[in-house]
Amino acid sequence: MLTLYTFGPAFGLPDASPFVVKAEMLLKFAGLPYRTDRGGFRRAPKGKLPYINDDGQIVADSTLIRLHIERKYGFDFDAGLTPEQRGAAWMFEKALEDHFYWHVVQARWCDDENFARGPASFFKSIPWPVRPVAQAVIRRKIRNTLHGQGTGRYQPEEQRQLLARGAQAAAQMLGDKPYFFGETPCGADATAFGFIAGAMTPSFRQPLRDEIENHPNLTAYVARMRRRFFPDAAQGASA
Prior knowledge:
Glutathione S-transferase Yfyf (Class Pi), Chain A, domain 2, Metaxin_GST, Thioredoxin-like_fold, single chain, Mito_Protein_Transport_Metaxin
């Protein structure tokens, strides 16, 4: 059976990483039987999760997992979409990965209160005398990455303007459709759910959540996707 390596449920989400959620959604969409394993991070080929073991073939990176499923199993995640929609769907999910993602990372790791609520738990296995040092080193690396990528250079008001526009654009694309490109979910929905739900978790205070919650169609979309694909997580989120 195919194995998906994950971090595991956290913060009221199916997984702490939106990329892992995306990969799991792709497996669900394709109807492939799989199991999850939370113990694979140390062996991750690219030093990140997710990755899969498909009958001995290791595939790392959520997008490469999608391409693998398409090639090996002949599953078309965008069946029914026009060529124009296929292009728009691909660009839409890449925009989410390159825009929403970094603001979520900044909110979780750079805000002291948010860090204590969530990412600090990732260091529990490190002995206490070393743990604060390890936390400081990793958080410094993340701040440097955010500065190099550009997100870390924005002032709070600038960030809010960008996030407001991003949330508005997502809401406009969704409109009154059940899924982003029609009546059935496509590949972009795997990404959209992972990243929008990740931003919406009440475990952290973050500007992006505030902006998303200004759009009822986005909040309804996340609730709908939870109920359909992660019913156990949906019950936990509403508890």
